[in-house]
Design brief:
The complex is a heterotrimer of chains A (261), B (249) and C (329).
Chain A lengths: L1 H6 L1 H29 L3 H4 L3 H9 L3 H23 L7 H40 L2 H7 L4 H39 L4 H10 L3 H27 L4 H31 L1
Chain B lengths: L2 E10 L2 E11 L4 E5 L6 H8 L7 E6 L2 E2 L5 H8 L2 E4 L11 H6 L10 H14 L15 H13 L5 E5 L7 H18 L2 E6 L2 H7 L2 E6 L2 E6 L1 H6 L3 H8 L2 H7 L1
Parallel strand pairs in B: 3-8, 3-9, 6-7, 7-8
Antiparallel strand pairs in B: 1-2, 1-4, 4-5, 9-10
Helix pairs in contact in B: 4-5, 5-6, 9-10
Chain C lengths: L2 H25 L8 E8 L10 E4 L2 E11 L6 E8 L8 E7 L6 E7 L17 E5 L3 H25 L2 H28 L8 H24 L8 H25 L4 H23 L4 H6 L2 H22 L1 H4 L6
Parallel strand pairs in C: 1-7, 2-6, 5-7
Antiparallel strand pairs in C: 1-4, 2-3, 3-4, 5-6
Helix pairs in contact in C: 3-5, 3-8, 4-6, 4-8, 5-6
Classes of the chains: A mainly alpha (261), B alpha/beta (249), C alpha/beta (329).
Chain lengths: 261, 249, 329
């Protein structure tokens, strides 16, 4: 009888909806704790540079790698698409606009949700199941101040930096590709690049990556904090952190495009 | 009358763990809480440092009711409480020295030099000199427990809580840990609560032993009284006879 | 956390901020160190101009559009442009906004007013603000072309109305009549040839009138090539040719029979020459379509001429004496 009840589709939908809402509520709770922990600079200030190095500096190579290849592919595909009707300098426009507005922030965000979000969730999840977070509390540390704030702040500060470097790399890769493989000249590429460029594009990308940094780190922290049940639980949290933050990144991406552009 | 748990109820979802748990630990006394795994020993202990909040009932530490405390006041109480976790719960990313010194950083008047001195003292007490720059992953299980103890006593707490201090250790290390518990009690004059399912350990270190069963203290007494107790549940646990425990259901 | 790592964090942050700031400035073509100044211009409207579009002088980029705002009151649009300080603007400068390419990117070009005097520039009241004009962009040109073609359609319809089948039939009928008349005249002349030395002066005037009618017909026939494609044209051509042949014969006869008729023959001949030329034109297919397009009243005039000619011929048939008052009657 009980299993049949559990398989009832209405029960399943209702249950998962309630679980999702509860999850968001718990995330909000952690967010509040984190905000409350912000004044404890003495606790997190010492840890911030380390997290900035781990979240930001260590992510630079993978972000640049992804961006460089994206830039190459964009340039090639743009020239393939533009054959004939559209002048080739539009390759520069397409590479520049797309890298700055979309691919730079989003691809970096997605890559870092795997790299940073997963590592945060795994680290904090392990700390949770091995009672290290409890231990912190018994030593009168606020876990939000000690663990969450430095990671989230590092994410907010470092994501835009990584995204800017990645975007610049992507555009440079697109330029080199245009030069070497498409027989375009540098002035041609630059003309296209500058054609529709607005400083606001860069600000938009920075705002986007700020939000992605917040998303990836806070979701990683959240799933790490709420980990239950040993190694398996840590694995589950890690997976969830990556999946959920990737989804939220894409939703936020659409949200910013709809509200800010 | 320094640690008091009064009629504490605690449930996790539909799992009612504590059902009116009451305990009094007097100043300078060592109390051992014994019981089967999963009966709520650790849950009860976590209430003492405010890691868990009771659904119902009250928790008093040092004459203060933890239920109504702001985090800042709770943290003040926590500074006087050392907690030795079951698996030491050392921070993987910090060296042993940093782990032990972590609690000291919370004390405003502490200088770096005094901190280093205190860490050295604590490590000497648990016989871990020379391990300062090691990471927890490089230590054995027993060494981790000792490092965890060093961390717990570093802030010179008045209360020490041990969560399964001897579980999973070989007999020799178990003896070492038991001796350490007694040594710290003697040297630091701390009020101690030890959670264990190791009766030998309980007999050795405790002034009084409480048996937890189905979320409440089933029996409380000195080691002699426990040995003499005729309650089938207590007898079943002490003698390792599950049929007695089930019979008492 | 070693010192090395902290330095690395610093390096990455500085690199990121540097890239963002310098990259933005570079993409905006802001030239640091070189001074810039602001130039303002007012327009009725600015087409698809956007912030950041290039400002050009003689085709050379000298700056960028800084801001675009509708004036309070909404009567004009004020465009601020930041240009290089050392660039000297031409005398009486105006700003022309136009598409830079087919793909919607616009530019603001500063030119001397005399370069394009035909444009209707906005005239600002402030002396330091330039006047400007926005060229229609490609979509608006298309719209204009649409409008022109619609007008053409209307015009063509009107021309078609003027040249209905009825008109064509009238022309055909008129030519038939001319042929008939000329045949009768020839018969008459043949019969009377030699018998009468002198022709009445009335003959002259009659033939002159005939010449006038032919001239009108000439105008009308200029339209005939319009309906060359219509069925029945072939026979029409043959009719006209026959007419010309008959008339010429008539002229020759008249010339040989009466010396006094020399002058009138010359008159008539010129009319026939004209008719002949028209025939040649019709045959070679040369069109008067251009003139027809330019002057739609032509069609109406042609109709009038035909009506005149018809009336004349009718009158001629009914009262030949009024025209040729030969003594034989």
């Amino acid at each position: 009888m009980k299993t049949r009840f559990l398989l009832n589709p209405f029960y399943l939908v209702g249950r998962s909806a309630l679980d999702t809402v509860a999850q968001i509520g718990r995330w909000g709770g952690l967010a509040m704790d984190t905000l409350r922990a912000l004044p404890q600079v003495g606790t997190w200030g010492r840890l911030l540079p380390g997290q900035m190095a781990r979240i930001g500096v260590d992510s630079v190579p993978i972000a640049l790698f992804i961006a460089a290849f994206t830039g190459v592919v964009m340039a090639l595909q743009a020239s393939y698409t533009f054959t004939g009707a559209v002048p080739l300098y539009f390759v520069g426009t397409l590479v520049g606009k797309t890298m700055i507005l979309e691919l730079g922030p989003v691809l970096t965000g997605l890559a870092l949700s795997g790299r940073v979000g997963a590592s945060i969730a795994a680290e904090l999840g392990t700390m949770r199941v091995t009672e290290q977070i409890d231990a912190l509390e018994t030593m009168a540390y606020d876990p939000a101040a000690y663990l969450v704030v430095p990671r989230v702040l590092a994410g907010i500060i470092m994501f835009p930096v990584v995204v800017i470097l990645a975007t610049a790399t992507g555009i440079a890769a697109g330029w080199l590709t245009s030069l070497q493989l498409l027989d375009m000249s540098t002035p041609e590429f630059m003309k296209g690049l500058r054609l529709f460029f607005l400083p606001w594009d860069v600000q938009f990308a920075v705002i986007k990556s700020l939000s992605f940094g917040l998303t990836v780190t806070s979701i990683g922290c959240f799933f790490g904090f709420t980990t239950r049940g040993g190694a398996e639980g840590v694995g589950l949290s890690t997976t969830r952190a990556v999946v959920v933050s990737s989804m939220v990144i894409l939703v936020l991406d659409a949200f910013w495009a709809a509200t800010l552009l | 009358m320094s640690i008091v748990l009064q009629d504490v109820h605690k449930a996790f979802g539909s799992n009612q763990v504590l059902r009116g748990f009451s305990l009094e630990v007097h100043e300078g006394e060592t109390v051992a809480i014994v019981g089967q795994s999963g009966t709520g020993k650790s849950v009860a202990l976590k209430h003492v440092v405010g890691l868990l909040k009771p659904d119902r009932g009250e928790v008093w530490v040092d004459g203060v009711n933890l239920g109504q405390l702001a985090v800042e006041r709770l943290n003040e109480i926590r500074r006087h409480v050392g907690y030795v976790f079951q698996f030491a719960a050392l921070f993987d990313s910090l060296t042993i020295e940093e782990n032990v010194g972590l609690g000291l950083r919370r004390i405003p008047e502490m200088t770096e030099k005094a901190m280093a001195e205190r860490v050295r003292e604590c490590l000497a007490l648990v016989e871990l000199e020379g391990y300062e720059s090691r990471f927890p992953a490089e230590l054995s299980g027993g060494q981790k427990k000792r490092a965890g103890l060093a961390r717990a006593i570093a802030t010179q707490p008045r209360y020490l809580l041990y969560d399964e201090p001897t579980t999973g250790l070989d007999p020799v290390t178990t003896t070492v840990i038991n001796r350490l518990i007694m040594k710290t009690r003697e040297e630091l004059k701390v009020t101690t609560v030890v959670i264990t399912h190791d009766m030998e350990s309980a007999y050795l270190v405790a002034d009084r032993i409480g048996m937890i069963h189905e979320g409440v203290i089933r029996f409380m007494g000195t080691p002699e009284e426990v040995r003499a107790c005729s309650d089938p549940v207590v007898r079943g646990f002490i003698e390792g006879k599950p049929e007695l425990l089930e019979g008492a259901g | 956390m070693t010192r090395h790592r902290e330095i690395l964090v610093g390096v990455v942050i500085v690199a990121g901020v540097f890239t963002a700031v310098v990259g933005t400035l570079w993409l905006q073509e802001v030239t640091l160190g070189r001074g810039t100044r602001e130039v303002e211009a007012l327009f009725d409207e600015v087409g698809s101009l956007m912030r950041g579009n290039p400002v050009k002088l003689r085709g050379v980029g000298i700056g960028r559009v800084q801001s675009i705002a509708v004036e309070p009151g909404g009567e004009a649009v004020r465009v601020r442009m930041r240009i290089q300080e050392d660039v000297e603007l031409p005398a009486d400068p105006v700003v022309i906004l136009a598409p830079e390419s087919m793909f919607g990117d616009w530019q603001a070009e500063i030119v001397c007013r005399t370069v394009y005097p035909q444009f209707d520039y906005y005239e600002p009241r402030e002396p330091e603000v330039l006047g400007g004009h926005a060229l229609p962009d490609i979509t608006r040109l298309t719209a204009a072309a649409d409008e022109i073609s619609a007008t053409l359609t209307v015009l063509t319809a009107r021309v078609e109305q003027a040249f209905t089948e009825e008109t064509a039939q009238n022309i055909s009928l008129a030519i038939d009549n001319i042929q008939e008349v000329s045949e009768r005249l020839r018969d008459l002349v043949e019969v009377q040839a030699g018998a009468f030395v002198e022709l009445a002066t009335e003959v002259e005037s009659a033939v002159v009138e005939l010449g006038g009618a032919a001239r009108s017909a000439n105008l009308a026939f200029q339209k005939v090539d319009e309906i060359l494609g219509a069925p029945g044209t072939e026979s029409l051509l043959e009719d006209v040719q026959a007419t010309v042949f008959n008339l010429r014969e008539l002229t020759q006869d008249l010339g040989s029979t009466a010396q006094g008729a020399q002058v009138l023959v010359m008159h008539a001949d010129s009319a026939f020459v004209r008719l002949d030329r028209l025939m040649a034109q019709i045959e070679s297919g040369e069109g008067a379509f251009g003139r027809l397009m330019a002057d739609e009243t032509l069609a109406i005039r042609a109709q009038d001429a035909l009506r005149d000619l018809q009336a004349l011929l009718e009158d001629f048939k009914e009262n030949p004496h009024r025209y040729v008052r030969l003594s034989i009657f």
